[in-house]
Amino acid sequence: MAEAGQAALAALGQDEDQKRVSVVYADIAQAQLQLGDVTEGITYARRALEAAQRTESTWGMQHLAKVEKALAARPDYAARELLGDIRATRLALGPSPA
Question: pTM to 2 decimals?
Answer without folding.
Answer: 0.80
